[in-house]
# Entry
Amino acid sequence: MPQFNRRITFTAALAVAALCATSASAQSMTVEQARKQVAPFYEMLNQPASKDVKALSEQALSPDWKSYSSETEFKGRDGFVAQVGGFGKLIPDLKWEIKDVLVDGNRIIVRSEASGTPVAPFFGVPTSGKSFKIMTIDIHTIKDGKAITAHHVEDWASALRQLSVK
Amino acid sequence: MNKDEVQAIVAPFYKQALTVNTATTPAAVLEKILAPSFQSINSQEVKDKATLIKQVGFFWQLIPNLVWAPQDLVIGVDGNKVVVRSVATGSPKGNFMGMELDGRKSFKIDTTDIHEIENGQIVRVHHLEDWATGIKQLKG
# Structure
């Protein structure tokens, strides 16, 4: 019996240790660590044409990463790389400046200011040499050092308004 | 603040002020949960408390079936910032974003807000709605 009790105690201690480790790792990311974690992602969105977007995406995103623009619609990693490549051609000076970073367990929330000057028609708005500057918010979920999902919203309606102003 | 305390402050913002209901009014709810120095910030402008209350009241008239349903709530480790991701739906009737609408077309869009809380009230919100998609849906 003592042997049995010891085993129970040992198993319980292991379980507690595992729980603490999980809890510690969930709580351990600091805002600075979070900034480092998401840095390659935002690197892709700053003058994308001058970056190796595919390599950065592989560094930042898991192969089955999903980027949700609504509850049900999402893009995968390859689709995102293609889209960012398109943005690089359309908005060569695209800038995605991080304004605020929040962390909760394995989730990182980033509020940014995206700005740029399209050099070709943009969502149907003719080229005018005008620039946009809009708010964006992303909610990233991280697992094993890489992002597995992103929920993102950008204020494209304001961008179109800014580009259309006479 | 724990999740329950945060919920108690931000849930009425969505379920009672941004969702049209018969139990209360946007003014009654927002007067209570927004700090006097409240600021509502988006890409275009900064609104104060009185302006937001007026705008939400206008939304109730224009979109009588407006529902703002929270899907996810994240509390930053620093404790006073809360992120709420929601789905907003509604069928505007009247002039909405330059479109004359008869209430037969609806929008369903994602929204994300970052609230800052002080002394049990919301002092600042950075808010973002996917109106580009909403406008497309209402025009379609």
User: Anything to note?
Assistant: Chain A touches chain B at residues 27, 30-31, 68-71, 100, 102-104, 107, 109, 111, 123, 133-137, 139, 151, 153-161 (CB under 8 Å). The longest helix of chain A spans residues 2-28. The helical segments of chain A are 2-28, 31-44, 53-60, 77-90, 156-164. Confidence is low (pLDDT under 50) at residues 1-26 of chain A.
